[in-house]
Amino acid sequence: MEYIKIRFGKNLGQMHSRIQKTIDDMFQRVNPLLAVLPGEVWRPQMDIFETEDAIVIVCEASGVKKEDLVVEIDSGAVKISGRREEPRRPEVLKYHLAEIPYGGFERILMLPIPIDVNEVTASYNDGLLNIKMTKRTSKVHNIPIEGA
Length: 148
Hints:
By secondary structure, this protein is mainly beta. The protein has a single domain (5-86, 95-135), classed as Immunoglobulin-like (Sandwich), CATH 2.60.40.790. The chain has one helix at 18-30, and strands at residues 5-8, 46-50, 54-60, 70-73, 77-84, 103-110, 115-125, 128-135. Strand 7 (115-125) and strand 8 (128-135) form a beta hairpin.
């Protein structure tokens, strides 16, 4: 069985500041092609949602081999990167439409609440990467007080 690479880092959130996100959003509104960060070729669509006990990320990465996906996680952010290779084609081509981007991508998602980095699972089926992260619990513990 092959596994999706999951790396645990520290302070991934610092890698992608709010200023950078604001700039990305601004340029994407003007022209979506300008929103690509240096080194990126495309930007897969993602959903992030919360259940009672977990945060779930679904990344649409059709055409990406599982061994070309990398997930890095810390308690406050997730970095998903990968590469979609262009298929071999005859050298003489006449395109009538070319919309599928190939090459590398990288997305850093800030998590809405801290997660337990020891309770993370990932699966990849039918072009969808699913990452489930258990929320970090902050249960209240009653401490007995001794003495008279």
